[in-house]
Amino acid sequence: MAYSVPPLPYPYDALEPHIDKATMEFHYDKHHQAYVDKANAALEGTEWADMPVEEVLKNLDSLPADKKMAVKNNAGGHYNHSLFWESMSGDGGGAPEGELNQFGSGWSWLVRDGSGLAVVGSANQDNPVSQGSVPLLGVDVWEHAYYLKYQNRRPDYIDAWWNVVLWSKVAERFAAAG
Ligand SMILES: [Fe+2]
């Protein structure tokens, strides 16, 4: 079955003032949908089309060479954004905090790996699941995630983003990863 954008678990304006409604509309309606459409186009008619997106990303090396980049970027974009929407809430925020840095378009992640917890960056739409880690929390630091409200002030966006992190979801993912 082809991928589809999962329902947003709150209204577009639920994360105001930290993440503004216009950014959410654009990010969710346009960007996430585009990743889904391109991932579906890349996988259509292949044995991978019915596979859960996480399984596809864990097995990128098995993909045909001519599909690999499109799938990595777009199935990755679908997976990353699905995790991202679920990781935020208008009732989020609070402790703990952390240090997440990623330069250029990409994501910063809190992951569970073999040795415990780690903070890692990923370029583009790569996801640490492709390296065998379990993503617990990710912040989208592509310009499209903040430019409308914060322009080039990425640090201000990240500071504000901590106010909407849904830590109960992070804890749930951590427990499931054990
Ligand atoms: Fe994004």
Explain this structure to me?
The protein has six helices and three strands. It has 178 residues and is α+β, with helices and mostly antiparallel strands. It has one domain: Helix Hairpins (Orthogonal Bundle). The chain has a three-stranded antiparallel beta sheet. A hairpin with a 2-residue loop joins strand 1 (106-113) and strand 2 (116-123). It is globular and about 45 Å long. The mean pLDDT is 93. The protein binds fe (ii) ion. Fe (ii) ion is lined by residues 27, 31, 81, 140, 142, 144-145.
Set down the secondary structure blueprint.
Blueprint: H1 21-43, H2 53-58, H3 65-86, E1 106-113, E2 116-123, E3 134-140, H4 147-150, H5 154-161, H6 167-177
Antiparallel strand pairs: 1-2, 1-3
Helix pairs in contact: 1-3
The structure holds fe (ii) ion.
Fe (ii) ion is lined by residues 27, 31, 81, 140, 142, 144-145.
List keywords for this structure.
178 residues; alpha+beta; Helix Hairpins; 6 helices; binds fe (ii) ion
Number of DSSP-assigned strands = 3
**Which structural category fits the helices and strands?**
alpha+beta
The shape, in one word, is: globular
Taking strands numbered 1, 2, ... along the chain, how are they ordered across the largest sheet?
Answer: 2-1-3
If classified by CATH, what would the architecture be? Orthogonal Bundle
- The percentage of residues in β strands lies in 5-15%
Helix percentage: 40-55%
What ligand molecules are bound, each kind once? fe (ii) ion
pLDDT below 50 for ≥5 consecutive residues: which ranges?
A: none
Q: Could you state the order of secondary-structure elements as H and E?
A: HHHEEEHHH
What is the level 1 CATH name?
A: Mainly Alpha
Overall domain count:
1
Counted by DSSP, the helix tally is 6
Kindly provide the radius of gyration, computed on alpha-carbon positions and rounded to a whole number of angstroms: 16 Å
The CATH topology is Helix Hairpins
Main beta sheet strand tally, sense and closure = 3 strands, antiparallel
Distance between the termini: 29 Å
